Amino acid sequence: MSDVTLDLARMMVARRARWTTIEIIFWVAAAASYFLFPTKLVLLTQILIGGLFAMSLDLLLGYGGIPSFGHAAFFGLGAYAAGLLAAHGWGEPVSGVFAGGAAAGSLGFAFSAVIARVRGAAVLMVTLCIGLLLFEAASRMPWLTGGDTGLQGIEMWPLLGLFEFDLFGRTGFWYAYATAFLLYLAARRYVHSPEGLALKGMRENHDRVPMLGVSTVRRKMIAFTISATIAGMAGALLAQTTQIVALETLSFERSVAALVMLIVGGIGTLIGGFLGAATFIWLRDVLSALHPVYWMFWLGLALIALVLMARGGLVGALSRLTARLARVRTMR
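^ that's the sequence the OP posted. Answer follows.
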């Protein structure tokens, strides 16, 4: 390969790795929401955690083309790991998040060898079975997980020894924001690295990538482990900020909710997971208050309308809008 070709390839990679306007606006708006909506900090924290979980699924589905119907298994395992740690005397938040990520990542690595060797509907079945097995195990061990009543007695120490977790969610919000932002930076670095580019190559043409000397099994195992680790850290954040772990954290419905968030926000964009989570969780909160009985019907209707109107999700719609505005400015 000539030097000119290499230089062009590096320029293309660098251009794609640049921050977009949508990304910058989201993270600035998320920080500003602390001051704009001081009474909604708990809801905003839930949005950040939901976005982080959806982003972990996006690494698999959006960049690797690996579907998962049981991703809540890693989210719930991370939540229970951090919750059990705090409930048994170790309430330090940062190490608890890493413990949740390590527990979920270990499970992800254990199953990644199987996931990496199957394709299509078999992947869906394996991931679904993982989720159902963990859910059933948690429900059958109330002495450890609390069963249907949830894991309680979680007491968190002050963040960094300075900031107490309060009922208003002030510390929880900035804790979730900082963790989500740092993990977002790590995910961006990964998807724009050679490992991430190989993963996207497998998504586009799985059969030709091995001809380039790239191990598809190894790349899938790495992606699945990283995705599971981030999902576990998101679950740990939920356990620490709410100080309870419900059995629902392992449910199939949570896996589906993450998939819906991705579709609404935009698959294969990373930031789409956060935009989809903001839309989904905000709509759920508003509609459940307006229509306590039929809110799920109206939520489904609103999401269908969004998907039909916004091709490529919210990120795709906003990208087309900004491109159109840029063309209008150049014409002037």
